């Protein structure tokens, strides 16, 4: 059953307003065209300048072409049952009806942050501005199922990212049969990457796509790059798996090409993972605590000493550095006449 929205309190109204303002301020500072800021303004003039029509790209990246026909076959196979267990199977017609009902649904999760149901629903509607009806269901573990009435609204969401709530990425995946939030492991996000000073001879769609695929599935390429209007850096929109370390550089023949990421606000410089900083890295902290546990009360590091250990000597030996994150440009103060 779809949860009912309760009236927002004055405190929640203030939080929503601050989030929207913070969202606009943050993402306008990154030199990112407003079409991809997630502010709900559907500026077609800029979208027309983007290469977003690579055949099958979005369907493949978001799983909309993964075995849908196989899943609607009848459950004919015989499974071994344990004592006290019964079996339930579905016919092909029953599976077809299920897919027809949920085929225009996605599962989203706010990466790195937990949000309340009412706040998230209001934020998504403000960003996506759907024409048809949209239902949202909290399925647990910070996952939300979003069901669209219109295919066009779903397409706008899938192809219009990356999307943010505040400074947090929205992870999107296709609805899947028998999805259980507690067992969901894979988490992907859409992000713009920059390749600074990439040699101009690589500014061709097939070559850019080949280079981008070393980072993740390529969703589209900034047309200013393809038209040669900007040569300082290449912008490619890719899908990355947040469970894996980020790609920091690409070796193209004898050249090392650094990779920068737009919109990141938390990156662990110890292991290159998103969602936390090095001083809160569970792996680093676990390694620090293990020797302390073995030595018992013989060792007592001060907070300052522990912070130095976590920092790792100012990252001198770390391969992940701050240059990987595109810095937000500081807003110039408005001068009133």
Automatic annotation (TrEMBL):
**Region Disordered: start and end of each range?**
287-337
The Basic residues compositionally biased stretches are 326-337
Mark the transmembrane ranges: none
Q: Where is the composition biased (Polar residues)?
A: 292-302
Cited InterPro entries: At4g02000-like, DUF4283
Outline the extent of the DUF4283 domain: 100-181
Top-rank taxon: Eukaryota
PANTHER family the record matches: DUF4283 DOMAIN-CONTAINING PROTEIN, GLYCINE-RICH CELL WALL STRUCTURAL PROTEIN 1.8-LIKE
Q: What is this protein called?
A: DUF4283 domain-containing protein
Which organism is this entry from?
Quercus lobata
Gene symbol of the encoding locus: LOC115957243
């Amino acid at each position: 059953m779809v949860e009912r929205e309760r009236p927002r309190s004055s405190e929640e109204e203030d939080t929503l307003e601050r989030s929207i303002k913070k969202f606009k301020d943050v993402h306008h500072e990154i030199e990112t065209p407003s079409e991809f800021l997630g502010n709900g303004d559907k500026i077609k003039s800029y979208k027309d300048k983007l290469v977003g029509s690579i055949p099958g790209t979005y369907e493949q990246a978001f799983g909309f072409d993964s075995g849908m026909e196989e899943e609607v076959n009848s459950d004919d196979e015989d499974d071994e049952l344990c004592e006290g267990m019964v079996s339930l199977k579905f016919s092909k017609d029953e599976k077809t009806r299920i897919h027809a009902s949920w085929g225009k649904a996605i599962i989203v999760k706010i990466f790195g942050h937990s949000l309340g149901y009412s706040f998230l629903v209001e934020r998504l509607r403000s960003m996506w501005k759907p024409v048809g009806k949209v239902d949202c269901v909290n399925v647990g573990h910070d996952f939300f199922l979003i069901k669209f009435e219109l295919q066009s609204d779903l397409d706008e969401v899938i192809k219009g990212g990356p999307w943010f709530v505040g400074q947090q990425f929205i992870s999107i995946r296709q609805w899947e049969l028998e999805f259980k939030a507690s067992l969901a492991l894979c988490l992907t996000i859409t992000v713009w990457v920059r390749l600074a000073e990439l040699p101009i001879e690589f500014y061709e769609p097939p070559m850019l796509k080949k280079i981008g695929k070393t980072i993740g599935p390529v969703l589209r390429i900034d047309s200013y790059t393809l038209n040669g209007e900007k040569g300082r850096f290449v912008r490619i929109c890719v899908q990355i798996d947040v469970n894996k370390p980020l790609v920091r550089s690409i070796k193209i023949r004898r050249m090392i090409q650094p990779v920068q990421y737009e919109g990141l606000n938390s990156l662990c410089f110890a292991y290159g993972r998103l969602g936390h900083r090095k001083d809160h890295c569970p792996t680093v902290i676990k390694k620090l605590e293990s020797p302390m546990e073995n030595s018992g009360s013989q060792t007592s590091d001060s907070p300052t000493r522990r912070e130095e250990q976590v920092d790792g000597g100012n990252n001198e030996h770390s391969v992940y550095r701050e240059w990987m994150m595109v810095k937000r440009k500081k807003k110039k103060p408005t001068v009133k006449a």
